[in-house]
Protein 1
Amino acid sequence: MMKYNNKEFENIVNEYITHPEVCKMKKYAHHGINRFEHSYRVAYHTYKVTKFLHLDYISSTKAAMLHDFFLDEVSDEGAIAKLRRHPNAAVDNSKKYFGLTDKEEDIIRTHMFPITFRPPKYLESWIVDIIDDYSSIYERGISTTKSIKASVNFGIIVLVTIFKSII
């Protein structure tokens, strides 16, 4: 797991990153990494932005860590429906294991706007929504780049093998 060298951030998310149910998110692929790492990245960047802007960075960071706290796969079949439903599942799981403030619930429930049609009520909710989108694009790019590099490396190995067999 990636670690950020920030003690305050780690203290805010520690309850979540050590919880066995949240750790189950590590099993699910998400944007080329796993859902846990994605949520951790979103939480860290949310922490940095909301703290810089003197907003409620504690609630924002907590909710960002839990924004994708649902424990099933998103397949291509019915993906849009699942994208619309998963914030509610994340809210239900978060309430079940931790409890949420109204703001934290709004952050989680609206992080897929406009796909979910429900606009965020708080500036912190908008920030998590945007950081989640940015992180998703970044992670897919990293994943795609790794796939391309692996394909190129495989291609080079094949070409070298063919070339050696010809000589």
Protein 2
Amino acid sequence: MKNLIQNRLSVNLFVKSGAFVLLLLIGQSAFGQDPDAKGQVRSLNRLTTVPVDNDTKGTVNSLFGNLSALGSQWQVTECCGWSGTWTRRPNTNVFDAVWRHTNGSSASGVVELKSWNQSTNEVIIYRQSMNGSYKAQYNPTSRTLTNGTTTWYPAGQIWSAIIR
């Protein structure tokens, strides 16, 4: 019975327009359809989208749970004189980011929430332009990210954010 279920039911996760979509694909053969002349089971799969989260920015299909808890804008303080504003795109885990340095220079880019472990409250964000990741601790009570590190900071440097 276990093999029958594994062979006939597949669960897939992919990103569509920046939002995660969970798909349950159930082959017709799981419902007792006859094999074709070659002994192969024809499979016209049924598609089911399972929404996981409904926040104030709209439905978000996510493995991360309630994304509204992570707000729509983050005020970020980084190392080495940089600060920024990260604004979440509606219905996604993608943020458009703008940074300013104390010397007057600026930068912009895209960051993407890759994981949020709700047991430990560890958050990991990927920054395309740096080909690297941010990691920090989410504090739901104060709505902050603290003790942040990155894959490109000098040793001992940290970042933090206030979630709005």
Protein 3
Amino acid sequence: MAAANGMPESLADFEDAILGAGLDPAVESLIGQAGRAGIGDEGALQLLLSARRLAPAHPAPLIAHYRFHFYARRLAEAREVAVDAIALAARPLGLPADWRQVRPETQWPAERMAELRAHAVAPRFYLFALKGYAYLSLRLGDADEGRAVLDLLDRLDPTDSLGHRVLGSVLARAGRDVDYDEPEAAAATPEPAP
């Protein structure tokens, strides 16, 4: 069920929305049309912006908008949409919209960790949004921002259930010529002389 502002009323409703429930058929149609238009098509972008205006609190238009920019290699724009996704996902979890204000020790209780281990949709969506933002920050050369998000992810997801630590490896290798087919340790070890 959605409130008057379009935001799902409960955590369960938000999780259902992440999975596509409760989406107005007109909004779903706009997203579908955009998907058929092709990568980077400006008409598709206008359809997605219309979908977001019609359903500003539903994750589906937001996800489609993010993917539009990501697959078109418009990384700065995708990162802006990731900020919106983080803010949207934060609210039903009782977290601040700005990830920099999240204090895991007081705002991410043991129950949330249990939900994460049980693959609850809302915490995972939040963490995936953070991971996407971290990745895009690193790709855009904003290593300090990327590192800060990865530090938060380490505290929110200490078991690395979503694989964010691989981004830390990318950050650690920045500027080095590494053969990505070899393990990092092997790539850093020179071959013995014959």
Protein 4
Amino acid sequence: MVAASPTSFSIDAFDQVVMTTYGRFPIALVRGEGCRVWDDQGRSYLDFVAGIATCTLGHAHPALVERVNQQMQTLHHVSNLYYIPQQGALAQWLVAHSCGDRVFFCNSGAEANEAAIKLARKYAHTVRHIDNPIILTAQASSMAAPLLPLPRRVSRSTSSTLTR
């Protein structure tokens, strides 16, 4: 799809090439400044969504643009397969200013959830000495999908049983 100008954008053309996995609002956002965004018709809105809370720094702030530009001229993205000095510095700052003693960096909510489950399991094994910990998670959960009910019966390795 060619970059859209304010007069050439078509929702129908967009929907022909982009999966309709979201219930999108019929608004085509084309630019932003601070907490305000503009659509392809020139109307302005306050951005209360902030990229579903992942971009809460606002849009096009000069200091952010400058820092992102500096970083892009150095390194765009580096895998966690390598040591990244800036990542180490950020981890030191986070440890010094939080209750944690180590930091886990990841790229997505899925990775974060997987790590939380693995860390809970490790804690159960090493600290609580639980051989077979049970970790309940929500099946098919997201902000857009309702939680599915628990199965009729969730049993533990002990005699206690949860019933619905």
